[in-house]
Amino acid sequence: MTSDTKTPPEPRPAISRMQPYEWEPPSAAIAQQAGVPEDQVVRFDTNTFPWPGASLGRLSPEPLNEYPDTSYRGLTDAIARYTGVSPDRITVGAGADEVLDLIAKAYIDDSARAVISRPTYPMFTVLTEMAGGSIDAVPALDLRLDRQAFVDGARSARVTWLSNPNNPTGELLPFDYVETLARATAGILVLDEAYYEMSGITGLPLIDRMPNVVVVRTLSKAFGLAGARVGYALAGPAISAALRRVRPPGSISVVSASLAVQSLADLTGMQDRVERIKTERRRLQQELARLSLEVRESSANFLLIRAGRQLAPVLLRSGLVVRTFPASSQLADFIRVTVRLPQENDRLIAALQAAMTPAG
Ligand SMILES: Cc1ncc(COP(=O)(O)O)c(C=O)c1O
User: Would you say the CB of residue 263 lies under 6 angstroms from ligand 1?
Assistant: First the structure.
């Protein structure tokens, strides 16, 4: 059989131009490279919690031959109970990432300028550029958001993306500043609160007063369900209606929706997980300081550490995966580590100590 020589059409120019998201290698590849069993690989790079927030064994049987209820009534009601927001102001999606994508689809075209503080969550740039828009990046000052320059940039931006607390720095901006930002911008203010359960600070009260604010949250972190892929947006009627227009009818599986409802029903469990991670974060911070490593203050479940560029590959050889950053970035000398189980954090500290002690 001869193969067809047709070349497919080029992707849209925006897709050819954009820089796609890059992950650290998958665990199986790291295990093979490091020569350790896959169950010895510890992911310090994904900012997840080390405990699942729900169990498949406790689900009631679902008719898997049928599509999900596209209104996701049960899930939306559970989010409404948790957040105190009425169901008509909630839009669910397959993870916060899909919700961010819905926002980009609804509001960004090739005439749009979107503002970010740099460094921040890379998907803001990926999604903006994918939708054809351009990014205006306000450089952070000593890794803290430049508050005045960011407000100035937000004024005329179509979309202002803010991760609060910020991934990857851990910086938390106070409510008053977020409100100033919402007032200053004529466009949409996206408050990505993926780590809200760790920080306790939210811009949520703004959605009742400011029609241009959307809060994005996820069940991937404190609710322990990153693998299930469930996130949601909270916003006033205009933004909620726009997001519904672009939302796919069934991107959350019935299994994931049920797991999310189960996890949202156990707020005590979630709060307990958050407290345990905060305790571990303090301990890890102290241990890292003991190793004379510079660690940034963090309001999330990860720490940003100035470790130089040599340590990450050494850690990888022990199966410990940390988040690294491009050589050209402000964070070239930093690694970001997720706060994990005490014994896993101990492995990280021991490996760092060994890597930093000159062989003799
Ligand atoms: C700031 C921020 N937003 C969104 C996400 C993605 O969340 P999800 O797993 O719900 O897609 C992450 C994941 O690390 C994140 O750090």
Answer: no
